[in-house]
Design a protein that fits this description.
4-stranded mixed sheet, alpha+beta, 8 helices
Length: 359
Amino acid sequence: MKLFSCQGCGQLLYFENIRCENCGRALGYLPDLTEISALDPLDGGGWRVLAAPGRAYNFCRNYQFGVCNWMVPADDETGYCAACRHNRVIPDLAVAGNLALWAKFEIAKHRLFYSLLRLDLPMHSRTDDPEHGLAFDFLADPSESHAEEVMTGHDNGLITLALKEADDAVRERVRSEMGEPYRTLLGHFRHESGHYFWDRRVASRPGWLDAFRKLFGDDRADYGAALQNHYANGAPAGWQNDYVSAYAASHPWEDFAETWAHYLHIIDTLETAGAFGLKVRPRRARGALAAEIDFDPYRARRMDRLIDTWLPIEFATNSLNRSMGQIDLYPFVLSPTVIEKLGFVHALTHGSSAVRKTA
């Protein structure tokens, strides 16, 4: 995530800010410019957009609920921003507490879309492509005790997210029960989007599909049986040598989705670190584990440059977290095989004609 500041007073801003805490101006994110803009109200309604003088914008229709700070060009017929236009089902806002849970989902979803837009990935909505377009259902468990619980997952472009996952206590309990080192809403969005882009950019392209199967395994393996085996027996011994997480070992589809999510974790965190001018030069390492982010991670041409920068940043941030008594910021190990898989995702997102370790 890049760093933002108020055009009116220079105050640094968070991506989710709707008002500058220093000068009081309203704020809106302009996805077409990748910029948060300070706003001045116009007589008769509307806004003067400081980041784009002379251009007219309106807030997304979900701004009224306090869950979106993105803006759309004034002539946009849908009225929904590039992220919210993919919502198919939102929670019942008449139910107490649902608005707060939905807001947490939208924070994570908008961060996902920031990355997808930065990577220039094609994302058709259900309106654009009723059969395969990307859509989200945010669903609460049914009130009937005999009914099945909502499960987070992906099915042909439709990503379903269980509303209870936005409850921090519930999510932490599930994380602990599943023995997961990491479980976040943003992680869910990044993982499930990986399934969508596997369908769109791997399954339908023979060259990429062949390369995928050589690296990740045969996606034609029985998915239901694979998951059943994973939940019954866990990941195979030594899984860390070939997979970024234990769950990635369950099936090639999950391996890809997990790797896709971690690729987004890495490039977005590197962009944030670079925006703050973060440099790593350990005094006791004698030149090892040094890193400076003097490039745009979203536009990096080589995967090895990303990894060579990421590993020192990861070690430093994990060490900072441990000093606060927290778990590692990035509690994962990147083996050579996993790095090669990340290189596949890197090549896929950058339109490379061949898969290379260094991309």
